Amino acid sequence: MQSIARFSISALVTGFLVLLLSACGGGGPDYEGPPLTRLTPDAVVLAFGDSLTYGTGAARSAAYPAQLAERIGRRVVNAGVPGETSSEGRQRLPEWLQRSQPDLVLLCLGGNDMLRRQSAEVMRDNLAAMIAMIREHGAEVVLIAVPKLQAWSITPHPAYGGLGASLKVPVLETSLAEILADGALKADAIHPNARGYARLAEALHQLLRDAGAL
User: How far, in Å, are 137, 174, 196 from residue 35 at the CA level?
Assistant: First the structure.
């Protein structure tokens, strides 16, 4: 009888922990990044960035935020501004946090800093400041790494992975680099086409599932 009682208590505890993890998010079995809280059906996702968020290179309806919204069944607000640097985005972000009241922010900035050969340290500081703003507003954040475009290679800028590790932020690190390395998935040297944005939306969908947000 005592062994049966111990088994019952153990089963109850295990069941409670499973339910708790399910409610709070958790992460897929192969996911090694920080977990995200599960998004409610009425959650708002803010996609904040430059032309890569706006959808330059494709119809507005084919931008990654629109394609992601279809996949996750939540509202995804497109707050992309072509040509914006991380410094400009840092100034613009508070207004959008107040306006959209997001539960989750997808942050994709830095490409124009690189194109204009601006300081990588300043870019990193701006991204870190925006992550802090988002968290102070009560939202979570996913960082989308923008690649360095060089004549001989397209690789994720190391600042994004470094920020993800130091600030415990999920990072979509290689997807944009892989998309922009494939001529069939891009409209020009620095922008995906509709198929490329679809690939980006699918990669984000997978990350959100793995991190426990869906």
Answer: 18, 19, 26
Which range marks the domain in which residue 123 is found? 2-210
DSSP letter at 189 equals: S
Predicted confidence (pLDDT) per residue in 114-149, tens digit:
999 999 999 999 999 999 999 999 999 999 999 987
What DSSP character marks residue 56?
T
**How far apart are alpha carbons 203 and 67 in whole angstroms?**
11
Domains in the chain: how many in total? 1
Backbone angles phi, psi at 78, to 5 degrees: -90, 110
pTM of the model: 0.86
Report how far apart, in Å, the C-alpha atoms of 188 and of each of 108, 144, 160 are: 18, 19, 23
Q: How far, in whole angstroms, is CA 185 from its chain's centroid?
A: 20
Three-state secondary structure along 72-92? HCCEEEEEECCCCCHHHHHHH
Helix spans in the chain (H): 2-24, 51-54, 64-72, 86-100, 111-115, 120-136, 158-167, 175-180, 194-210
Here the CATH number for the domain that contains residue 159 is 3.40.50.1110
For the chain, the C-alpha Rg in angstroms (whole number) is: 19
